[in-house]
Amino acid sequence: MSVDRNTVARIARLARIEVPEGELEHIAGELNGILAWIEQLQAVDTTGVEPMTSAVASSLPLRADLVSDGGILDNLMANAPDPHDGFFTVPKVVE
Amino acid sequence: MARESAAATVIEGATGPWEMVIGLEVHAQVVSVSKLFSGAPTVFGAEPNTQVSLIDAGFPGMLPVINEVCIAQAVRTGLGLQAQINLHSVFDRKNYFYADLPQGYQISQYLQPIVGMGSMIIDLADGTSRTVGITRLHLEQDAGKSLHDQHPSLSYIDLNRAGIALMEIVSEPDMRSAEEAGAYVKKLRTILRYLGTCDGNMEEGSMRADVNVSVRRPGEPYGTRCEIKNVNSVRYVMQAIEVEARRQIDILEAGGKIAQETRLFDPGRGETRSMRSKEEAHDYRYFPDPDLLPLILDPAFVEALKADLPELPDAKKARFVADYGLSPYDAGVLVADRASADFYEAVAKGRDARLAANWVTGDFFASLNSQGWTIETSPITADHLRELIDLITDGTLSGRLAKEVFEVMVETHQAPGQIVEERGLRQVTDTGAIEAAITAVMGANADKVAQYRSGKDKLFGFFVGQVMKQTEGKANPAAVNELLLTMLKG
């Protein structure tokens, strides 16, 4: 598997990362290097090996259904640009 | 759109018959005190951004910890939908950018949902039933809310809803008419409410439907579908389907092709409109959330939830038919809402069950409608109805007097016994009093008595009416009939 400059441009747009036109070729090369390395890993026969989801043996911790948070409007808004009446604001987005 | 009835399964187009194929994705807000991955509260209608944790707001370094009750609610819902419970499920990130999604991704379940295939029976107006397949149910986070009409150049963002647990319940494309889709949403809402896993309140957005619609010639493979997003009432679901199917048929009959796309239903204009032009918006680049380990359920946990499920509407309906001798229709009306079913059982206990069903589904439900009451707020209680039924059963009230007493109950909220006492509405069963009334009526209508006796049987009804009038409607009708027959014979 490999990616070309169009794919890089598309992925960058989806991730909202600005990649200058002149960088696309270079980044495609880097990504292809990583993909080649993963292909190399995939050559290992893992038949019968359970996928590992964590480096330490543990299970998903659960939380009791209790209210222990919220009510921190001032903290939330401390770094928000231009809050209005308790709302975050962003440039108008209408579909 | 008046051309077809809502129940039509085949639509006649200009070039021949078409069939609709409908599948639904329902987003149901999980009943829980706190959010899916944070301890912020879920109460509806709070001041903006006051029910938000740093996790919900997507602050860096915050880690999600799952709410065990939300897991239990999803499993209970799966069990209520006769579905397979997956003991191993995985949370994924669904990546997209929108102002009310501060993390830049929604935590959802993609390839390995918590609940797999199930099914649900829907009941249709003509008395038939159909089974609709459930494809899956998965847990995910809700997004926040954007308000676009508060400021000329800004959108306002409220994250109170962000992070609340949703169940996305996906059906198979098994429905063939708007009526079936409406019945599906209603039945699903009923089941969720019985289970207490979602309040089903579509006005507050606790339940929203995405509707997939395509059309085809009967018997042919599926056509290209369009998805109508975020429809928030049963009526709109049905309208959107009718409108969208007609739009697709018109395109196909004109020789065009359907573009697979997301559309919005505009109830005001009665049309659907294309919503997203950028196809890449659908490229969500799912991957397993590295902050969350797979969710492993203990079979004993699932068994315990199963053992604790309430009686569900289908089982309750079957029991009402079998134990109370109700018609499937009446039983269906009563079990559509758990409160109605409980109310009915309270009224029917130790009473004539069918008489109780008639009163509950008839005059009582009519009074709820006309007065704007709910079962919870109605001043007419189950005890009042039991008392009324007792008064009918012991002969104090005729059916006609009982209706009169009920009307007074609606007005004054008094107990029926009290109304009977105060207003003297007791039925006259005293033979002497009825005989006296009959004698008076016969005396005043000697000509009609003669006509009756010479063979004009139809006059019998006239005499019954006069006697009832004479007794102000309080005479026992059976006694009147019996005594009149004898006395008219002479």
Describe what you observe in this structure.
The complex is a heterodimer of chains A (95) and B (490). Chain A is mainly α and 95 residues long. Chain A has a domain of 38 residues. In chain A, 36% of the residues lie in helices and 6% in strands. Chain A is built from three helices and two strands, in the order ααβαβ. Chain A starts with a helix and ends with a strand. Chain B has three domains: 296 residues, no CATH class; 113 residues, no CATH class; 59 residues, Arc Repressor Mutant, subunit A (Orthogonal Bundle). Helices cover 39% and strands 19% of the residues of chain B. In chain B, the strands form four sheets. In chain B, strands 1, 2, 7, 8, 11, 12, 13, 14 and 15 form a nine-stranded mixed beta sheet that branches. The chains are: A mainly alpha (95), B alpha+beta (490).
Total beta strand runs of chain B: 17
Estimate what percentage of residues of chain A fall within beta strands. Answer: 5-15%
How does the overall form of chain B come out from the CA principal axes?
elongated
- Tell me the number of strands of chain A: 2
Let me know the largest β-sheet of chain B.
Answer: 9 strands, mixed
Helix content of chain B: 25-40%
N→C terminal distance of chain B = 65 Å
